[in-house]
């Protein structure tokens, strides 16, 4: 396997490996050694080339402080190597052993209520704690030195799903580290007091040593700037914790690739040091888990959304854990993929940027908190349909890997994403409004079901490949983005701005200019003269469920029924829509076209949606939030005029389509996400790489069927 130096972070970045990683997380410590050779032989027969090991085995690597034992994993790596299978090792810092937490209890996390974590789970150690960081460096160095010359260890995963169980800590040591971070960031206490608005509610400090961690409702709301900086600190601390390990691994063997596997993405700034330290990022994909926990509208659409978000952080990625079957922990369980669906979900990951897929897990555990989290092999050591599906997928991708590697996912419509500050700014002061991602999901879902090439992109990436860019209510707009955005528009791109864009500065202060700020106002030809909340359907004027207490009582005060009856309507393209969440009244420049107008109440006749020609492109401003109906209408009124069209016309319901491309090739993935066969019309001429058969006109897909059509080069 050859590894190149990774390119700078970008949604367009391909993986820097010449191998498509195919395999599974493997836990030799969970099974009798007599099974190892049979496991390796079955893996090789299925097409596995790589396994991942060791992420929860610190107690085995170091059973006593300073005493290291690697023999168990050495033997396991050797058995796999004889079958032609390489190993990705993991630093085991997600589960420090009991001797560590017993001897150094200060490393344990403390929750917002002051309760210290106990041993017996995972991620119970505080990654901001200097003592824990020292032990992390020590185990990482010992493992790196031991495996530095083992040719079967080809790369490393840092930790495991950092911040997935919990990202916050309120320990005394966390407070001290937070104070150090603030002093390094601001230099003087006066600068911090300005940033946090210390004159409001007398929240100013005399010295950094006085600064507290921001606990919610203790007894009221802390400053948004205080909360934002706490999460910036957590992200910086997470990056520093990982950097300790990366630095040791890189110094020990420069040929190793290094990545991390992300779970729920909390308090991690991918565009900062965290992502820059890594060769690529791994994302663990459990579509049914996400959909059932968050009710996001179907697990196929949810998986596509998650993958497109993930790709925006760093480009192509790997999936170190891809759902293979029923999954559970004691408090929840997921649906089980039906026959063919496991393969289809893995193919979706490839279609949207994965250059490596590892099904979780090789064998299920017989003990612990995931005994019903199924793997490729069943509990009774019998390979059944999941093994057959994994084998089919591995062999299919292995046969076409050279066509896939080096390609990136096509996007005609980009949605601004991957910006840590904007993600967190909304959380500091949400007032019941959807987050940027929640709003963007409506547009992404419309594009997914319509077969439009859509994804997420950071404004600092190359925008020239896009036809349109939607910015979903980014409160913080940075001056360094202005030149690239204006160039994109002048060269023919369509920019869509949305309500509240650019209304706060980096300190979470409201800007002193009229929204959306000088630069965006000049570009869009729009200034906001007034804004207000729109009550959600069935909702009330205050959100969520907060009422001013009645005098002398904590009982909620009922709101007048009339507050829930106000509807704000606007017209767009001879159709009337109900506004969602917020209205803005807009003043427009003479060269700005009014596309939509408020049509009732006091706002009647005021512009709601506008467009302005800039060079060869347009800037559209939407003075409200998206609804499914408005997202669909924007396609007809705005995006179609930008040259955006579905990848396949007449896309049948439940069929997913996307394209991966390079200068010399295009691969169209056509995937049936339903349990019934379907015929897809209007397939362009090409070859289905999975079958070798010509594809043109119509394509018949079985239940959960997949096709990868190699098209003629543009």
Automatic annotation (TrEMBL):
Species of the source: Mesorhizobium tamadayense
Protein name stated in the entry: Beta-galactosidase
Residue numbers binding substrate: 122, 160
Beta-galactosidase trimerisation domain segment(s): 442-537, 570-644
One family name in Pfam for this protein: Glyco_hydro_42
Assigned protein family: Belongs to the glycosyl hydrolase 42 family.
InterPro entries: Beta_galactosidase_C, Beta_galactosidase_Trimer, Class_I_gatase-like, GH, Glyco_hydro_42, Glyco_hydro_42_N, Glyco_hydro_b
Keywords (A to Z) from UniProt: Glycosidase, Hydrolase, Metal-binding, Zinc
Gene Ontology CC terms: beta-galactosidase complex
Domain Glycoside hydrolase family 42 N-terminal, chain residue ranges per copy: 27-397
Beta-galactosidase C-terminal domain mapped to chain residues: 654-710
GO terms, biological process: galactose metabolic process
Class of this enzyme: hydrolase
Molecular function GO labels: beta-galactosidase activity; metal ion binding
Catalytic reactions on record: Hydrolysis of terminal non-reducing beta-D-galactose residues in beta-D-galactosides
Stored PANTHER family: BETA-GALACTOSIDASE GANA, BETA-GALACTOSIDASE YESZ
